[in-house]
Amino acid sequence: MLHRFSGRERIGQCTTIANETGFRIDSERNRTIKEYIQQQSDVVSTIKMRSCQQCSVFIALAVFLALVTTVSSNPVQTTTQAEIYLSQFGYLPASARNPANGGLLDASTWTKAVQDFQSFAGLNITGDLDGETLELMSLPRCGVRDKVGFGTDSRSKRYALQGSRWRVKALTYKISKYPKRLKRNDVDAEIARAFSVWSDFTDLSFTPKSSGPVHIEIKFVESEHGDGDAFDGVGGTLAHAFFPVFGGDAHFDDAELWTIGSPRGTNLFQVAAHEFGHSLGLSHSDVRSALMAPFYRGFDPVFKLDSDDVLAIQALYGKKTNGVADRGGFPKTTQRPVFSPPKVPRDDIICKDPRVDTLFNSADGQTYAFKGNKYYRLTENSIADGYPKLISEGWPGLPGDIDAAFTYKNGKTYFFKGTKYWRYNGRQMDGDYPKEISEGFTGIPDHLDAAMVWGGNGKIYFYKGSKFWRFDPLKRPPVKSSYPKPISNWEGLPNNIDAALQYTNGYTYFFKGDKYYRFNDRTFSVDAANPPFPRPSAHWWFGCKNVPSSTDEKPGNGNIPGWMWSIANSFF
After folding, report:
1. Going by fewer Cβ within 10 Å, which terminus of the chain is more open, N or C?
2. Taking the mean position of all CA atoms in its chain, how far away is CA 99?
3. Which pLDDT band holds residue 543 (cuts at 50, 70, 90)?
4. Where along the chain is Ca(2+) 2 bound (predicted)?
């Protein structure tokens, strides 16, 4: 069950950077009333009117009021709301309130529930209902419980399996009730595409039927619809699905504005693909990049299934036997793979001096390292053939010796040097750049050491010397008065770092000199491992051989699950 974001809506202007970076105010999380009404004008256009101008006024007013309800629906703000949330998603049992204690929650039970949620969500585990925790509870998310069966031990795997699966691989489905505002042919195509997300990596097949019994029934309904789990209108709950043992059906709230291939409204394909994961037996994953993560991310124009999802579905149904699932690896990796001998020459400059200026992930999923006036593209094994190349050729107009870089969720990449920053759409510089950092990133200093978008909360973090700043372009002011804060808050990290990178395996990496640190976002500290961190970057990231190394770790399979990688790290 997916819930639309409702906790941090803002009406009116955002900060300079919100406009500067091209962030869409009409996103699922922040949109102005005016833009929302313009974007959802197709709702009005579906109403056939024969009447006069007065009718138009009443209809426009009704739409306006409906949209206001969407923008101001139910954030989690109080302890009572948080208790309901934790109970709904499996962190508190129904019997948590002790009658012998006047119907009150035991303090230790409450603290553990909050800690469990914070751990699953990748927050700092405090046990306190702080602002960050309430903020994350207000995010759009799936309504299926994170803990399927309260009281079970913590999962050993990143992904989770509910425990039931279909005993056949040739499954059928039908759409028994279509949405009101989309064409049937378009809906059929999107639903088929959502099923193919899972059949691409297994021998499962999904055949549509127009009538008769099927394995999975799909319908678009509103309010109470017969399963005891009523929808709540625009905003709030988007959809829910049932595990195979309960029938596998998927229901979508038809009060929502379902859209196809657009950032407007709610993306049908992505919600359907997530819900069908539940229909096949998958529970929620705590890998943020996974489709089966509980928090709804909104429209993704370049959607790719995360390898965590692939491992999960194949754990239930096996790998695809015709080889499609093994076509050169997965689009994303759950864990940083170990390295094979590199293809770069032994005397390559980055092997002699592995210090880098910055690392970042591009919008198309590539990872780049900048050093001086050159750049490297990293592969799963080392450095791609043909590198290094000149930065000026890869990103025309961009100078060398970059201080920091990151790609934001709007698909734009930002580069920082000295007092200025550049914005690129892919490899093309946007107009009127460079600009002053003080102009677009109010409250952020010049001459930065590093920057990244942290997966723990989606905020932008900047580092300089012994301090760091958190920047939220959707808040005003974008930097809270409590910043800067000491880097020592990131337990185990040194001052004066060179680069920071949120990698696709759920870890955050920090680089200083010729070494790197792996930061565990769940424990909020540098990972404890053997060999310990920091480790040599040349060996572990750039695949250099004949370089000093403090480890005897052997090359392995980059597609092993994250839980197995963690166990291996603790033993070797």
Report:
1. C
2. 40
3. confident
4. 247, 249
Average pLDDT of 471-490? 92
166 vs 569: which has the higher pLDDT:
166
| Token pair in block for residue 431 | 């107009």
Q: Which carries the bigger pLDDT value, residue 547 or residue 132?
A: 132
Do 284 and 291 meet the contact criterion of CB atoms below 8 Å apart? no
Q: What is the pLDDT of residue 407?
A: 93
Structure tokens at 423: 């914005």
Task: Identify the helix (H) or strand (E) that includes residue 423.
Answer: strand 420-425
Q: Hunting for tokens 């597609």 — which residue is that?
A: 559
SS3 sequence of 192-247: HHHHHHHHCCCCCEEEECCCCCCCEEEEEECCCCCCCCCCCCCCCEEEEECCHHHC
User: In which residue are the tokens 């010796």 written?
Assistant: 401
| pLDDT at residue 236, rounded to an integer | 66
Separation in Å, CA 159 to CA 177, 522, 563: 32, 15, 9
Where would I find the H helices in 306-442?
307-317, 349-352, 391-394, 437-440
Please name the amino acid found at residue 91: Y
Sorted by where each starts, the structural domains of the chain and their CATH numbers stand as: 79-137 (no CATH), 170-326 (3.40.390.10), 349-571 (2.110.10.10)
SS3 430: coil
Residue 96 in marked binding region: no
Is 14 annotated for ligand binding? no
Q: What angle do CA 379, 453, 365 make, to 5 degrees?
A: 30
pLDDT at 344 over 50: no
pLDDT digits (tens, 9 = 90+) for 489-531: 999 999 999 999 987 666 789 999 999 999 887 677 898 877 7
**C-alpha distance from residue 15 to each of 18, 424, 473, 483 (Å):** 5, 20, 6, 17
| Beta strands at 467-471 and 266-267: parallel, antiparallel or unpaired | unpaired
Per-residue pLDDT at 177 exceeds 70 = yes
Alpha helices in 33-183 (DSSP H): 33-39, 41-45, 53-71, 79-88, 107-121, 131-137
Is 20 annotated in a binding site? The answer is: no
The answer to whether 227 is a known ligand-binding residue is yes
Q: Tell me which amino acid residue 208 is.
A: P
Confirm whether residue 253 is marked as ligand binding: yes
Say if pTM beats, i.e. exceeds, 0.90. Answer: no
Q: What's the rounded Cα separation, in Å, for the pair 142 and 259?
A: 18
pLDDT at 464: 97
Per-residue confidence band for 263, with pLDDT thresholds at 50, 70 and 90:
confident
Q: What is the pLDDT of residue 90?
A: 81
Residue 256, annotated ligand binder?
yes
Using CB atoms within 10 A of its CB, is residue 13 exposed (0-12), middle (13-18) or buried (19+)?
exposed
Whether 284 has a binding-site annotation, put simply, is yes
**H/E segment holding residue 537:** helix 537-540
The pair of three-digit structure tokens given for residue 85, joined into one six-digit string: 């949330």
Query: Does 3 show up as a binding residue in the annotation?
Result: no
Task: With cut-offs at 50, 70 and 90, classify the pLDDT of residue 453.
Answer: very high
Short-list 184, 173, 262, 242, CA closest to 214: 173
CA gap 63, 45 in Å, rounded: 11
Q: Does residue 31 come out as left (phi exceeding 0), alpha (psi in the -120 to 50 range) or beta?
A: beta
Q: How far is Cα 380 from Cα 378, in angstroms, rounded to an integer?
A: 7
Whether 229 has a binding-site annotation, put simply, is no
